[in-house]
Amino acid sequence: MGTYEAPKLNVHQREESLRRKAPGSVSRHERALKSLAGGVSSGLRRSAKPFPLYFSSGSGPHIEDVDGNRYVDYMLGWGPLILGHAPAAVSEEIRLHLGRGYTFGGQHDLEFEVAEMIQKIVPCAERVAFANSGTEIVQVALRLARAYTGRQKYLKFEGHYHGWDDSVLLSYHPSATQIAQFYPSPIPVGLGQRVDSGAVVVEWNNQSAVEEAFRVHGAELSAVICEPLLCNSGCIPAKPGFLEFLRKITQANGTLLIFDEVITGFRLALGGAQQHYGIVPDLATFAKAVGGGMPLSVLAGREVYMDRIASGEVVHAGTLNGNPIVLAAAKATLQVLSANGGEAYQRMWSLGETLKEGLLRRFKERNIPVVATAGGPVFQIHLQNKEPHTYRDTLMSNKSFYVDFAVAMLDEGIVLLQDGRWYISAAHGDEEIARTLDATSRALA
Ligand code: PLP
């Protein structure tokens, strides 16, 4: 941030106000800490400031905590709630199937019905396979790439997240010191991780680094995997031509191109990033939005690759895979998203752009350096002067000020992801956007 002095938000006062408003969350967290490691169910939630909130219900764009405080929600369960909380059409479909049994460990109609819907929607989906989480389905994709090519290594990009398996939880959010010390070696995130993953790590949007990696490792690279829009480290788009370049260099080297569309799938467009950007990968992984909030993940890909799963050569297993409850949720979610020529996407894009522009204006009015990346249904606010093109570029943003801002917004009744990312759902409307922009003006005042 150079010599720039960020204004101080009265965050102490905001935290005190939240403690007064949400005593039920404070006491529950203290209780949970005595039984649940970290008091939360996923490591990333531990860092929520000023304390993790306990929620009792959600409806449309709103979420309510155990003390009855109602918030406009832009966290949206970290992305899955593309239709908002508890959309009627999805709840109804789930209810219908709940009465018929939760899981069969055998076949049922929803499996091929949802597979057929995805086939129609997703450009690369000649065949699909189901699992429960994004982490699992990425492992199936990488295994398939190894089996098809007979190669052991894969290329990933710095800052990209592909789940929490040892093989991919590498060079996710390394510090500048770690990068200086270890790059280009893959950098594990936590203790106890295996490091023999075969990962080759390069910077996002760095064409010559990818070319060099292919020059050195090309004959051993089974796959290149990327978030086609780098949502997990600042919503950083590929530079013009970069995805096309990845498509070409993988084709030329007999390496599979995998788009990890766990976030972008059914969010950027009905057909995901591959439809939005017009680049068709060999394989793509989906989770989050496709299940509308239920635990479903999907591998989609060309038949020639997916045949290895069909033949049983590549193992794809899972007790709860494709159970009727999650597929009922997926069916209803995809029906709503597809309705009226995908009208929900026009609305999410338009609302997201209005919100993004309104936020930028309010930060600029306060002379706070700010830029935004991506747009519409998912975008990021960065408190820095220069638009980031790589994960490293995001290291210069004023993250602590943004967290203070997010705390002030919470006090104003708006739930945000505290890393600067904003998700919009089809349930959000003009009223929520107006309320959010008013709250932003007060939070920054
Ligand atoms: N891939 C991407 C791009 C993700 O954003 C995530 C989760 O945030 C995953 C994979 C892992 O998905 P899950 O949390 O369902 O295991």
Tell me what you see in this structure.
- The chain has 445 residues and is an alpha/beta fold.
- The chain contains 13 helices and 16 strands.
- It has a seven-stranded mixed beta sheet, with helices on both faces. It has a four-stranded mixed beta sheet with strand order 1-2-3-15. A three-stranded antiparallel beta sheet has the order 13-14-16, covered by helices on one side.
- A hairpin with a 4-residue loop joins strand 2 and strand 3.
- Helix 4 runs parallel beside helix 11 and helix 7 runs parallel beside helix 8.
- The site of pyridoxal-5'-phosphate has 13 residues, from helix 5.
Topology:
Elements: H1 11-21, H2 23-33, E1 55-59, E2 62-65, E3 70-73, H3 88-98, H4 109-121, E4 127-131, H5 134-149, E5 153-157, H6 176-182, E6 199-202, H7 207-217, E7 221-226, E8 229-230, E9 236-237, H8 242-253, E10 256-260, H9 272-277, E11 283-286, E12 297-301, H10 303-310, H11 324-365, E13 371-375, E14 378-382, H12 399-411, E15 414-415, E16 421-423, H13 430-444
Parallel strand pairs: 3-15, 5-6, 5-7, 7-10, 10-11
Antiparallel strand pairs: 1-2, 2-3, 4-12, 8-9, 11-12, 13-14, 14-16
Helix pairs in contact: 1-12, 3-11, 4-11, 5-10, 7-8, 11-13
The structure holds pyridoxal-5'-phosphate.
Pyridoxal-5'-phosphate binds next to helix 5.
